[in-house]
Here is the input.
Amino acid sequence: MAVKIRLKRLGKIRSPHYRIVVADSRTKRDGRAIEEIGLYHPKNDPSVIRVDSERAQHWLSVGAQPTEAVIAIFKRSGDWQKFTGDTSPSGVDPQPEKKNKTEAFNAALADSKDEPTSAAISRSKKSDKDETSSDQSDVAASDEAGSTGAEG
Here is the structure.
């Protein structure tokens, strides 16, 4: 059985996420895998690359053939250099720390000095039109009442 280390595609349209899998070469791209040894998210900035180095070294040592894309990922993670004895540099860019949303909210609240800049509930356009038409009819009614009262 020919074993390959390749990428299994997941995710939505235009939002791919991949898993690095060990699979029989005759199975479908997204079909059944023998083992999942990592993941790759190319759309994040910087790309997320996580590889189980021990399992990758095992499968490479028993003869599993990586695809070109997986070789490039292994070079970034340093697993290819371990396997081949290459001395070229490797390194995965670290992911930035996630911002604490509650701290950001509290900072924004402190900046606003506890006064809202707009109404908490916005009115719909339909209700705005109803109010302007009722205001106009009130003005017209008061004009008529004022003109009849002045004559009499």
